[in-house]
Structures are given as structure tokens and as C-alpha cells.
């Protein structure tokens, strides 16, 4: 399939036209209307700071059904000992900045540019983006942020400054979302960390069906 190039108009090609690696389109911008349209279609942006926006819809898709969350015995003990305090949406700006600044093994720099920070912050006030946070002794030590549309949460990035902090925030967030009737968490692309928590691959076609239904 040829790569699609976006302009200022709000549109995306069918996800079935993505390249084998999931890349669907290039260009456009990150204004709120385009971002929300992308998530509605099962598309997300992911690109380096010196690149134009790249839009992806991989097949298969890495997701977590909240009912399939796996909590290890060691994490159950962490939760039981109350090593961290869980909060939601009390420090969104700090969470996204720490996701940007945290050093990641095997990676130079970050895809979370000023443009990305600005775009997702603009979605926070109307209630589309959310942060799940792990606090310890009054300090933000772990967390994640993403987009919530309908009954789907689209995870974007997480960070951890203390062992198990991001895992704690993720577990508590998934449990809260399940209580609120959320049916799927989009993890986008594979990581062993999220697989250990119950995430798995599903066909893009099934992923789009779930989006359409919810």
C-alpha cells in the first residue's frame, strides 16, 4: 500500500491501508480535533521530534482487557503494605513531563516533544486525557497518561522513579477503569512489562470492532 500524506483537512485513510509495520500516514498536525478523530479510528501518533507526525495502526494490536489483569504476588504485597498512594488527575502536567524526561534503557531521547506535550495538555481540560499517579511521601514517583474515549482507554506513556511505582499506578488504574465499565485498554505496541500484566495481541480487525461497539 502507498503511504498516505495528510494535509490541513481532517481525515485519515482506512486502517487496512497501513504498511506491514503499521505506518498509515504522515503529516498533518496534533490539534485536538485530529487527535480525537485518530483515536476514534484506532490510529495513534508516534514519531521523533525532528520528524513530521507519523500515524500508526498496527496489526496485530497490543491490548489489555481489564478483567484479564495479572497481579503478581509480589505486587499484591506492595499494594497491601501501602508503599504508594494512588491518585488520579492531580498532577497531569508533571506526569507527562516525567514521561518525557525519564531515561529509558536502549533509547536516546524521547518521542514526547513540546508539540506532543502541548497537544495532550489541551485535551486534559475537556476531560479526554487522564493521569494515573503513584505517590510516596508526598512525591510523585510513578505514573502514566493516556486518552479516554467512550469505554476505551488509550495508554500513551508511563514513568517510574521508584521500583514498582509505574506498575502500581497501572494496576490501580486498570482496576478503577474496570469498576467504571471500561472494556479495553489499548497498549498500542508490545512490551514485556505490559505482557506480564496481562496484555496480549489481538487482530486489528477485532480491535476496530471493539472501538466501533464502544
Observed structural traits:
alpha+beta, four-stranded mixed sheet, 7 helices, 30% helix
Write the layout of secondary structure elements.
Blueprint: E1 4-6, E2 23-27, H1 32-40, E3 44-45, E4 54-56, E5 61-64, H2 73-80, E6 85-88, H3 92-101, H4 114-122, E7 129-136, E8 139-149, E9 152-160, H5 165-179, E10 184-188, H6 192-195, E11 200-202, H7 204-213
Parallel strand pairs: 1-2, 9-10
Antiparallel strand pairs: 2-4, 3-4, 5-10, 5-11, 6-7, 7-8, 8-9
Report the order of strands and helices. EEHEEEHEHHEEEHEHEH
Number of helices: 7
Q: Between the first and last Cα atoms, what is the distance in angstroms?
A: 29 Å
SS content category: alpha+beta
**Into which percentage range does the β-strand content fall?**
25-35%
Poorly predicted regions are: none
**Strand order in the sheet with the most strands:** 6-7-8-9-10-5-11
**Rg calculated over all Cα atoms:** 17 Å
In this structure, how is the largest beta sheet organized? 7 strands, mixed
**Which percent bin holds the helix content?**
25-40%
User: What shape does the CA trace take?
Assistant: globular
- Round the mean pLDDT to the nearest integer and report it: 93
The overall strand count is: 11
